[in-house]
């Protein structure tokens, strides 16, 4: 009963001012294989030239991945630590496996299988140099709308998927994490899925589970150790010439926090000649003209905007608001040619529906906004140029609803700056 109450509180819209169109039904993805069959297979980048393969089995089985460059021929086998499982009230998860494989060659297709048997999967490693293409969508959930978004993402090639928080919308109903894992497997087993947490990942229950993120951290292990972070809730990675910061909107971010200290060290270690682009993902947007979730990202913006500005981050992606909105380059609420462009892309298709109401008149820093489900594509062509496009789900990938060319701040003689500390003079 208490659980139900908590669930309703979590699920309730936070603002009464907007109404959303009808949500579409949840999709159910039952497990069809045996107890030892691998399910919920997904991959993530795990440090230079390495990939982490994650999956779940209903019973204890070997944490081993066999892989190679030819279908059916596995020239290499890698083992991981013993699988783990977690409890959440009366739920006990399956056995969760994480195995790091590599070194792998760039732009190469590998065939693999998990646990010493089962079906064959394949993935392609990202390129080591430009061009590189990211697909981006947040607030996925697991509805018919989600399925449409995933079909659009998978309908056109890309290298890495970026998810700025809110994955399964399990909201404490743990079996929904499993069905989400099965729903995304056809995509997440083929391309690395790099995720950061949203509010729906928290799953704190007072006294019993005060820390939260139990399911998320167990299932969606990201390369935090590989990027010298102490927490799975924030980390970074490099792909081709892009450095990507995956920040935590629901863990501490103030100047005395571990996340803040990690971010300073991470930014100071970025070599712009190797990674001329820096992108960041958060969950609650710092800039938002939608009636939904207004102001929720403000404390994090106040804590961290200054350092991301000085570090010349090119674009900040957020989710949380179930709509699409793109801002011009901004800093401290004003247009600023040396600030990051902000994009809200919480349009994955979860059960809550769309956030329909934007404030009027439209502030001049907001360049495009629309409550439709869809996904974005960030194609980084070279050191100086990237192309961002947003695609609605009701159209083909070739139809672009919004697009913009971006020039990297590291290539701008006016803005170019090497970050050393928050006290940098600009
Ligand atoms: C980078 O890509 C842009 C867009 O295709 C192109 O105009 C520009 O010439 C390229 N720059 C270099 C150095 O290749
Ligand atoms: C897609 O949705 C938008 C917004 O609702 C609408 O204007 C457009 O006509 C739709 N396009 C198609 C092909 O249905
Ligand atoms: Fe959210």
Automatic annotation (TrEMBL):
Region (Disordered): 16-39
GO molecular function: acid phosphatase activity
Signal sequence coordinates: 1-16
Domain Calcineurin-like phosphoesterase: start-end pairs: 134-324
Purple acid phosphatase C-terminal domain mapped to chain residues: 339-399
Top-level class of the enzyme under EC nomenclature: hydrolase
Coiled coil (residue ranges): none
UniProtKB keywords: Glycoprotein, Hydrolase, Signal, Zinc
Catalytic activity entry: a phosphate monoester + H2O = an alcohol + phosphate
InterPro entries: Calcineurin-like_PHP, FN3_dom, Metallo-depent_PP-like, MPP_PAP, PAPs-like, PAPs_C, PAPs_N, Purple_acid_Pase-like_N
EC id: 3.1.3.2
Location of the Purple acid phosphatase N-terminal domain: 38-125
Cofactor: Fe cation; Zn(2+)
CDD domains: FN3, MPP_PAPs
Family under the similarity heading: Belongs to the metallophosphoesterase superfamily. Purple acid phosphatase family.
Name the UniProt record assigns to this protein: Purple acid phosphatase
GN (gene name): PAP22
